[in-house]
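Structural prep section.
Before we set up the soaks we want a predicted structure of the protein with dinuclear copper ion in place, mainly to decide which crystallisation condition to try first. Input record follows.
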Amino acid sequence: MIPALLLVAPASRVAVEYDWLFWSLVVVCGGVAVGIAAFVVYSAIHFHRRSENELPPQIKGSLKLEVTWSVVPLIIFLGMFAWGASLYFDIERPPANATEVYIVARQWMWKAQYLDGRREIDELHVPVGRPVKLIMTSQDVIHSFFVPAFRVKQDVLPDRYTTVWFQPSKPGKYHLFCAEYCGAKHSGMIGYIYAMEPREYALWLSQGAAEGSLASTGEKMFHQFGCANCHHFDGQGPCPDLKGLYLRPVLLTTGQTVVADESYIRESIVDPAAKIVAGFTNYMPVFKNVLTEDQLVELLAYIKAIGPAPGTQQPSSAGSVPATYGGQPGISGSGPAGISTDQSRAH
Ligand code: CUA
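Run finished without errors. Recording the tokens verbatim:
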């Protein structure tokens, strides 16, 4: 197949669709360009002036021709737009059941943190046939997460989270590149993605994480930094109740409503005065340059895990994660990161 000679073989569901769209555009645009060029050359030869005083017959135009060359391209362009837009929405909207992995980029490495607590550098292990959502931030400058085989590229920015998702379709080892010039060793900021069969992945995942889950580490910090002293889970504290906060709309003192996504939660930790929840006064210390990006990810994982379960009490000690913590919505069970089904099959 010709495309395989020019592009890395696609290894994710979106990559296959992306290639179809890409090559269709190349064929349509290339065909039109070649057709027009050929017609120009043909006309230049066939209709050239044969004598100095030759007057060609005057043409007044053709309605049929003009309607045809307006309507046909319009239909083709709208078709391309609809196809591209539907693929774009697909790429931009991670499925709700995606396995979440946090990525912290820094000069010059990629650090991956899994929900179960496992961590790795310049390597990422993912299951085949399952959607994987990466929640990424940078500790210093702008980097860009680029996996050619998955046809995904996403800038990784300091002070906020960006996400990208993919669903590997073939087991294998795939190149990961930084696609944004980020300093002297930018070219060395590379790594590998290992796409594994779900069973192997479950086995791999079970071999790590001696330190406890990301959320439980975050819970320890929640107590260590005194967050729990003010953020009570019964709604009676002097600071906003964080229970079920994630993705909830929050009304601010400015009258504006924002959705409590990862970037909002992060901003509220590092710069609490930036957005103040309506009905509250800001007493919170600034955590900018106090917590590392890795710690912020842990705290974020904990805050996202504080589910809206009824009767949840203020956690008395670190180490226990609320019952709603299951890796992702819609999948219950004890298996890490939504692979409980396969894990139970493996036993
Ligand atoms: Cu990181 Cu280039």
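Observations: The longest helix spans residues 13-46.
Flagged for discussion at group meeting.
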